[in-house]
Write a structure and sequence with these properties.
The protein has about 130 residues and is an all-alpha fold. About 80% of the residues lie in helices and about 0% in strands. The chain is built from 7 helices and no strands. Helix 1 crosses helix 3, helix 1 packs antiparallel against helix 4 and helix 1 runs antiparallel to helix 7. The protein starts with a helix and ends in a 6-residue tail after the last helix.
Length: about 130
Amino acid sequence: WQEALDMTSLLFNELVAAAARCTDAGLRAELAGFLPEVATCAGPGDMAVLEERFQDLLFRMVDRPLFEVLTRVTLGFAASRPSDMLERAVLGVDRWIAGRQRIIAAILDGDAELARFEANRQNRQVLLGGRGA
């Protein structure tokens, strides 16, 4: 399970970097419209729904089917251990909101390296027990 968590966070880092290179104006506008919704997250249930919508949008922005399959399979495996996922939920709602806002801002700025950095700092390091910001 730890390996699945490691894989999902690595894939997410690359997914957001690839999304920052998306040139589809409609998808970028959809992401910009999604940004204020992130702030409405009121708890873990909302977080799960919003995160799924966010990743679905990222997959459409990137359009890399094999990457999507690998990510979804790995996420599915990681989610198969809900008690562990709850134990790992060290992010908290406020931290999740702030992190996703930074990641989305970097994507909308078209800054792939900043998007990757923020995903690593706000997601991967936290999930794997690092400190994040």
